[in-house]
Amino acid sequence: MISVTALTKRYGPTTAVDGLTFTAPSGAVTGFLGPNGAGKSTTMRMIVGLERPTSGTATVDGRPYAELAAPLRTVGVMLDVRSAHPGRTAFRHLLAQARTHGIPRSRVDEVIALTGLEAVAHRRAGTFSLGMGQRLGIAGALLGDPGTLILDEPVNGLDPDGVLWVRDLVRRLAAEGRTVLLSSHLMHELALCADRVVVIGQGRLLADATVPELVDGTEGGSLEEAYLQLTAGAVQYRGGDVR
Ligand SMILES: Nc1ncnc2c1ncn2[C@@H]1O[C@H](COP(=O)(O)OP(=O)(O)OP(=O)(O)O)[C@@H](O)[C@H]1O
Q: Which residues form the ABC transporter domain (predicted)?
């Protein structure tokens, strides 16, 4: 379970995350939504210890990330698709991560197979398409067979086959009792794969509910409609009319 309590992050005059409290329970896929700049990535980075909160706490299974005995085995993270060194092959990239965490080489082969990367495992990551990079990022997140997965925009750039694969994967991981927190701007996809959604705007909580709770009573009855209504006052970057 991920617990975020009164979490706040300021960068100079900018408050990226503002007193945010929510939980992502185990055995469920929690969608994390919000307009551009709402603070989703900053929150995820604080959960995994890449940013220090200005105040408040974030824990995984009751512990701050920095105190986890075996972080990669507890939390699998995909925050930056281009995190692999471009000159390294996918296999070498995963093997290096596995070695530093005492994970056997056989697990590298397993996650390569699981993510459908066998044919390109010995190609340099720098030559990968966006979708292949996503698969590699997900492979890295799965390496330690963690009980919690945090995935920032995992379906971004995937072809329809890949989108379906991620949907099935996260549903299966949750059915195994794991905690899955994933951000996406694709409402239709989230409606299909998430049990719950946490919606934020300008760093603040706007909703924390199951998908049916959010959708019920919304005109049009879709998650997208519910989201647009919730975030109407929290959009910082809005395009002009297209004529
Ligand atoms: N390192 C930083 N220094 C200064 N400001 C930052 C930093 N990181 C994020 N911000 C600001 O914090 C706010 C939240 O950004 P964040 O990337 O967390 O939003 P997001 O919800 O992930 O957005 P998107 O959907 O566009 O990815 C933005 O105003 C952003 O400019």
A: 2-227
Q: Residue 220: count other Cβ atoms within 10 Å of its Cβ.
A: 11
Ligand 1 site-directed mutation target among 42, 182, 186, 205, most atoms within 8 Å of CB: 42
Q: Locate tokens 């997965």: which residue?
A: 149
The DSSP call for residue 201 is E
Is the pLDDT reported for residue 58 higher than 90?
yes
Count the helix, strand and coil residues of the chain and give each as a percent rounded to the nearest 5. Answer: 40, 25, 35
Residue 236 lies in a domain: no
- The whole model's pTM is what? 0.93
- What's CA 117's distance to the chain center, in Å? 20
Q: If you measure from the C-alpha of residue 212 to the centroid of ligand 1, how many angstroms do you get, rounded to a whole number?
A: 29
> CATH number, domain at 205?
3.40.50.300
| Confidence at residue 243, expressed as pLDDT on a 0 to 100 scale | 62
Ligand 1 contact, 38 CB (< 6 A): yes
Report the chain's terminal Cα–Cα distance, integer Å: 47
Cβ of 11 below 6 Å from ligand 1: yes
